[in-house]
Specification:
Strand content: 15-25%
Distance between the termini: 20 Å
Radius of gyration: 17 Å
Order of helices and strands: EHEHEEHEEHEHH
Structural class: alpha/beta
Number of strands: 7
Helix content: 25-40%
Number of domains: 1
Length: 197
């Protein structure tokens, strides 16, 4: 007798990148928009903030999940302890890219997986080093429009790949979901259920 199909994860996110990564991993999932408003506590560490936001997103969708696991994720770009969110316009995008050029920054993601019986919240970090960027490099990338709605003003899976010199850690974390962390948690909590563990 074959095993019952794995219950779809309920992804509390509207991010197309996160949907694409779950599809790439072959994980069944449904999507719901989280009913959660992000508020950054002044002075909180980036890892604390992304963990809190991931948990807030997951908890906001828990009522719609039934017995299914809910997945919440939040990602931040951090340079010298400062969070780089989504730029408001071209000027802010250019400023962010100018500051990231020639430097190593961290992409920190919080991940919350919860069911009616338990909740686990963890985070992962990937280090990304940009090559030195000329004003022309920055202007060309800003003109592409790819920076819109992207933390840190770039998309590593698109034209933004040309900005990167080196990457240490989980590449998919930089795209938008800490896949290695998720797989580890699913293998530990649901051994064999999702084709892993």
């Amino acid at each position: 007798m074959s095993a019952p199909p794995a219950p779809p994860l309920l992804l509390a996110s509207t991010s197309p990148q996160r949907r694409a990564i779950l599809t790439q991993l072959g994980l069944p999932f449904d999507v719901v928009a989280p009913r959660y408003e992000e508020r950054d506590e002044p002075g909180a560490a980036p890892s604390e903030l992304v963990r809190a936001h991931a948990a807030g997103k997951a908890r906001s969708a828990a009522g719609e999940a039934g017995e299914r696991p809910v997945l919440g994720v939040d990602t931040a770009v951090v340079l010298d302890g400062e969070l780089f969110g989504k730029p408001a316009g071209e000027e802010e995008a250019a400023e962010m890219l100018g500051r990231l050029g020639g430097r190593t920054h961290a992409v920190v993601s919080g991940l919350c997986l919860l069911t009616p019986g338990w909740e686990v919240v963890e985070h992962d970090e990937t280090r990304v080093t940009f090559r030195r960027l000329t004003p022309r490099d920055v202007a060309a990338y800003v003109a592409s429009g790819e920076w819109r709605d992207r933390a840190g003003a770039y998309a590593v899976q698109g034209l933004g790949a040309a900005l990167v010199e080196r990457l240490e850690g989980d590449y998919l974390n930089v795209v938008g979901l800490p896949a290695a962390l998720l797989i580890r948690l699913l293998a530990a909590r649901f051994p064999g259920t999702y084709g892993i563990g």
